[in-house]
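Subject: for your reference before the review

Hello V.,

The reviewers asked for a structural picture of the protein, and I figured it would be easier to keep everything in one thread rather than splitting it across files. Below is the amino acid sequence we used in the manuscript, unchanged from the supplementary table.
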Amino acid sequence: MKFPFYIARRYLLSKKSTHAINIISMVSVIGVAVATTAMVVVMSGFNGFSDLVATLFTSFDPQLKITSVKGKTIASDNPAIMKVKQLPEVEVATECVEEQALAIYHGKQAMVTVKGVDDSFEELTSIGGILYGDGSYQLHAANLQYGIIGIRLAQQLGTGARWDDYLYIYTPNRDGQPDIANPVTAFVTDSLLSPGVVFQVRQAKYDKSYIITSISFARSLFNRQGEMTSLELRLKAGANIEDVKEEIKSILGSSYKIMDRYEQQADTFSIMQIEKLFAYAFLTFILLVACINIIGSVAMLMIDKKNDIATLTALGASREQTAGIFLMEARLISAIGAIAGIAIGLLLCYLQQTYGIVRLGNSEGSFIINAYPISVHPSDILLVFVTVIITGWIAAYLPVKHICRNIMGNTD
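And here is what came back from the structure prediction:
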């Protein structure tokens, strides 16, 4: 390995008899560097959007969510569930009843998801930080039941942050057969008042369809007395989420699903990962095209050093050793291009993170953020570097072997 590296390094740094070879080598390095820069910036951009989405979900989603694998509900007095609530790592445990229903306000209607929660929900999440209006967080008072709706749902129903009339909620009656002569009996109807606030998670899934209300209202509406559709947990500071998940799994067994925030939004993050994978594959193909310049550079160098190859052969160098010199040359060009491209890519990422050079729009407040988010992950940088080195070596391997065989055949 030292012998090919020593010769390849001298060939790379020394002047060639034909000036065009130096130019082609420089073009090869620039081509690899540009492709590498693109990979670093694009993958960091995908990371930035993924991290941004994760921060948005934390205002609404619990750290851990427990649901039943079989069936829709869990008994509130389930001994295993009670044991989970009493774990020393659990800070807050909130029972929830979540079902779909129809909401109607002044003739306008929308399909909604009613999420009934107990009084600890405000401690469970950061919902207080995403409320807007002149009211406050309140789900019930005496016999009055309140509902906090998403901002886009409020726009759809025309309620605003505070509505003066009742918001009616309809859900199919689970008991008995409906009276065809009186279709109204096929539905259970109840109503909610406004606490004067709406929430904005900045995700359509929540803002367009969710209503947060008390668990007593939801149980009465959906006939879920003594039941819950999920148990949501917030852990104490310093608790390891993965360790607690494993402990809960050992308590509950396979009949329950325990999900962290990323697993609760698996569809969203899976789509983003697939998009990132396709971008990586596409940019790798572009990199492969850029590496064609390396083939031309090494081929020209081999022709230029034909006499050196004959000398090395006479001194006893095998065909594999000679080919190894020029393969090492390809690797050095790839490595220099990779290092330069990564350095430039990291610089561009830093400038975007610091100054927000590439903007999302001209109107302030039109988007969640004003500039494209960037997040550099060390694992991605390592992946890019390895990809460039391997791609450069693969691109040059067969051509170098073929040219070396022909040249050495002529020198025998």
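For the response letter, the relevant points are probably these. The radius of gyration is 32 Å. The mean pLDDT is 86.

Happy to draft the paragraph if you're swamped.

O.
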